Amino acid sequence: MKGNKGQVTIFIILVIIILAGVALFFVFRSTIILSTIPASIEPAYNSFLSCLQDDTLAGISVLEGQGGYINLPDFEPGSYYMPFSSQLDFLGNPVPYWYYVSGNNLQKEKIPTVNNMEEELAGFISERINDCKFDSYYEQGFEIYSGTPETSVSINDNDVKVSVSMNMDISKGEDNVVIKSHDVSVNSKLGTLYNSARKIYDYEQDNLFLEEYGVDTLRLYAPVDGVELTCAPLTWTANDVFSKIENAVEANTNAIKVKSGDFSLNSEENKYFVKDIPVNENVRFLNSKEWPHAIEVNPTEGNVLISKPVGNQEGLGILGFCYVPYHYVYNLKYPVLVQVFDNNEIFQFPLAVVIEGNNPRHSLNASAVDFSVPELCSQKNTEISVNIYDTKLNLISDARISYECFGVKCDIGETNVGVLKESFPQCANGDVIVESEGYKNARYEYSTINKGSVDIIMDKLYDVDVNLKLDGKDYNENATISFVSEEGTETIVYPSQRKVSLSQGQYEVQVYVYKNSPLIFGAVKNQQCVDVPQSGIGGFFGFTKQKCFTIEFPSQKVGNALAGGGKQNYYISESQIRDNGVLEINAQSLKTPTTIEQLQNNYLLFDEKGLDINFK
Question: Over 70: is that where the pLDDT of 469 sits?
Answer without folding.
Answer: yes
